[in-house]
Amino acid sequence: MKLSNGVEWALHSCVTLSQSREPVQATRLAELHGIPRAYLAKHLQALSRAGIVHATAGQVGGYALTRPAASVTMLEVVQAIDGIEPAYRCTEIRQRGPLAVPAEQCERPCAIARAMAAAQEAWYRALTAVSIADLAAAIDIDSDGTAMADVRRWLAESRRSLPG
Amino acid sequence: MKLSNGVEWALHSCVTLSQSREPVQATRLAELHGIPRAYLAKHLQALSRAGIVHATAGQVGGYALTRPAASVTMLEVVQAIDGIEPAYRCTEIRQRGPLAVPAEQCERPCAIARAMAAAQEAWYRALTAVSIADLAAAIDIDSDGTAMADVRRWLAESRRSLPG
DNA sequence: GGTTCCCGGATATTTCTTGTCCGCGTTGTG
DNA sequence: CACAACGCGGACAAGAAATATCCGGGAACC
Ligand code: SF4
Ligand code: SF4
Description:
Two copies of one chain form a homodimer. By secondary structure, chain A is mainly α.
């Protein structure tokens, strides 16, 4: 079981966006995190398609959160990047081989699939309980209240200096 | 997030093995489920390395559970096949870029990594709660008490007829 | 001793992730 | 209103990982 590392970038980007009311360009977000610009843009597009962020084009364009950070859950971001398909994909092997179960008995998933679905559900619940705002607040506390202020300052500064 | 489909084969194989006190060859397990024999053998080797099943060589060899089915949890099987590394791998991007956090502040994982770890823990807990014996019992109930008996009959029969 | 079967690694094939590119639409400006 | 600049969006290659397969030992049984 593996999670795309783009999830980490997307979560960090959302936390950063929650600190700015103006749109932030993909170039800035990539530079801030030291990651390839073009690839981050691809993931941001996925967030855009999921309705989590809104992209504005043009000279002063960029990305911004569409909803308040407190209403965006981690699960939404994870699913936007990694897809909504569950980790366990049942290939219905019980319908194959010499003891094949007839299809009419396979209407509802079997015990194995049910247990896996329950585990997935527990995973979803844990991620739903945490919002982007929670993350921003927790990161701020971890850094003694300087992290988010630094981000806001850097965003304001880069908007002036870098395009020059 | 994706789970190797070998997990499904391994779980089915364990349930099957729980119905037989004699060792069952990899060839039989593969035939019963209609899956490639060689690849299933590779996964069974992983189960063997994890101590879940014991392989006996020789003419009447095969695989058998080392412990009672009630004491083997789904999580053990999943981790034996899919590995124990967590789904979310933190690449410490906060230590990169213009706002890099110094390493001495990164001793404990940040809020994002903590939330992901909590979700993973919930997933583990759900899988630990279900044993192979539970699965066998549930599958038996789903089939009105015929599935496991059919498996036992097929195993006994194939041991006579097929090698001939 | 012959046979059967499991173990382990080496290897080919396919799929997915990662990474990069340029066209199109949008925005601000003259 | 036409122009030019800018960034988003999806299409396109390279790399990694999973999937699937094969064969040479070694062990147990007959
Ligand atoms: S639903 Fe259950 S029995 Fe059917 S293939 Fe999936 S795990 Fe196997
Ligand atoms: S520990 Fe937190 S801040 Fe550091 S890279 Fe992981 S998610 Fe980002």
